[in-house]
Amino acid sequence: MQLLNGTSIFPILMTLFHFVATSHVGSYKVYIKSSSQWRTVNYTDPDDSDIDQSMPGIEKSIPPLLSSPEECARPCKTGDPPKTCYYQWTFETYHTLGGACELCTPTTNTSLSSNCQCILADGADVSGIIVANRQFPGPAIQVCLGDMVIVDVKNIVPGNHLSIHWHGIYQKDWQHYDGVPFLTQCPISECSTFRYQWRAQNPGSHFWHAHSGLHKADGVDGPIIIREPPEFYPNRDLFNHDNFDNFIFIQDWLHNNALDHFPGTSINSIGQNPDNFLVNGRGQWLDPSNRKYTTTPLAIFNVKPGERYRFRMINGCTLLCPIELQIENHNMTIIAVDGVDVRPEIVNTITSFAAERVDFVLNTYELIGTYWIQVRGLSDNCTPRSVQQHAILRYEGSDLDEPSSPRPQFQSGLPRGKVFNPVNDVCDGTTANVICIKDLQNANPVNDLIFGSQPDMQIYLPFFFHNYERTDLFRPNTYQRFVDPINNLSVAAIVDGISNIFPPSPPISQLDDIPADILCPDPNNLPARCDGLTICHCAHFINIPLNSLVEIIVADIGPLGISHPFHLHGYSFHVMSTGLLSRVNITDTNKSTALQRDREEYPPISDNPPMKDTLAVPSGGYTIVRFIADNPGWWLYHCHFLQHLFNGMSVVFHIGQDSDLPPTPKNFPKCGNFEPSILRTNPVPRGEL
Ligand SMILES: [Cu+2]
């Protein structure tokens, strides 16, 4: 294993946050990448005398010591104290092209806050979207490593509960704020406010999104960017700009509501396909009826010539299409994936699946001009319909608003060149000009424990879709969960023999309130209520001892089709391999030798595997990942396609014991079944008790 830099950054971090005491002394944990270990950092709160209390866009007065979103989006400097960053978001149903658009037109990339309440999107008139603070995408969280993040989420969406997940944030010591309804909290009911608070413990490009219902597909998401002082970046010499608006937040966009797609109709199903993509909430739409584009503004990235810019691409999609990104006449140097630094790789195309993030450097060494950025949807779900979007890269000094070259078409678009993360390709050397995630080199040394010959715990998760017989699904007095992905097909997702459901109460705070027949920790010992059923819908909780080395093998054992991106909460895992089951046949009985046989079939390029929190399983293939289970909690592991998540394609890793977790916060909301004894008379009037 090669060491890029053998120096521990812990002493530097101690220096970073060790400054003259002014008031309160505290501590928090950060993840030290160079040792793959958690460390406690002691700090003292800053004197609050220099904090600006006039914070635009904030309704309520803010207690002292809180910093506004604008104050927190700052260059991170060694020696600066952490801030406590306060955000107040009101979620409501909203629509595009509304009355606000007669007052103002959004003029900059959506970022920290906006004074303009107009949402244009791609020019289509869409009602029923859900937004925070009338921004789309939602407000960005941009902070420095070590900051506290406080977000008050106020839900005024009629008839809907909400919860917000902070994708990529480890939440060690803050497990009650991971935002998974019925796992780490009760969802936020209408008219309520829930205060999320967590420490920015791991740097990188992340994002937040709804984990409740289908709300994410209706617009509930936004960027999270956690920066470090520049000297901590292993690839710091490659870029000299890390601007607050240089994120490329890509969403798939529906011209109707997500519920129109779920569970779908038996005939004429509109499936799980987007109508369009948006870049930073912007885009145009090619109306197939008249072959004309809408005239809404495209996202524009302004740069100066001769510079090196860090860009942060965040795939905020929810539906089935992977996307590819190209920039006309420019290559991209990948420097981080899912927030973790990798050794640089120069590519021409970045492919990504729902929830993946890729940081890259763009050198503005071309002729002063204006260039196209193209975002294309891939797979059978987007390619036949040519779903794509454009954005613009404009050099300072260019007098062109739009590039002079023709707009790249879907079929004859920008050249692909070298492709990063190709769909369903396992990079065995037979395809030229590709680089897979498993081939990336971690920029930091990897903890040797990861390479242990036998993991402490191996979890084999074969998955497929069960196709219901009509007579089974519509058996009288049964109500099995299903989705109709295409015409005349009703399915349930099965992972290791179980279609996962969520209990009525979150186990993190109300484990004793969960009915026993909901749970199924062992697929070979299912609850009695599943006797005689074709499939069992139950809460698939897998117990993992704290600090064990865990190896997960996820295997797509269904018919060939799409590639599913699996996301792990609370962790990044090491990508040990991806492969095809037709080449390495992994089963429950031979799984213990899976990695060894994989290595024989696919000799590894990387001896320093990258870390990710979201990884796509090739169709008909598998992924092998490892992590050290040092973060106790109830962590969801699931396909990030929204409909698959709600169709059971998930499991829960219960790591450690309740005694390893912080106490449940005071007045933490409760939820669950209300099933008292059945009354045989009217309730006794209070006065007669
Ligand atoms: Cu899936």
Automatic annotation (TrEMBL):
Alphabetical list of CDD domains matching this protein: CuRO_1_tcLCC2_insect_like, CuRO_2_tcLCC_insect_like, CuRO_3_tcLLC2_insect_like
PROSITE patterns: MULTICOPPER_OXIDASE1, MULTICOPPER_OXIDASE2
Residue intervals of the Plastocyanin-like domain: 127-229, 245-398, 531-656
One MF term in the entry's GO annotations: copper ion binding
Domain of life where this protein originates: Eukaryota
GO process terms (BP): iron ion transport
Keywords annotated in UniProt: Metal-binding, Oxidoreductase, Signal
Signal peptide: 1-22
One GO CC term on file: plasma membrane
PANTHER family found in the cross-reference section: MULTI-COPPER OXIDASE, STRAW, ISOFORM G
Family designation: Belongs to the multicopper oxidase family.
The name this protein goes by in its record: Laccase
Annotated source species: Microctonus aethiopoides
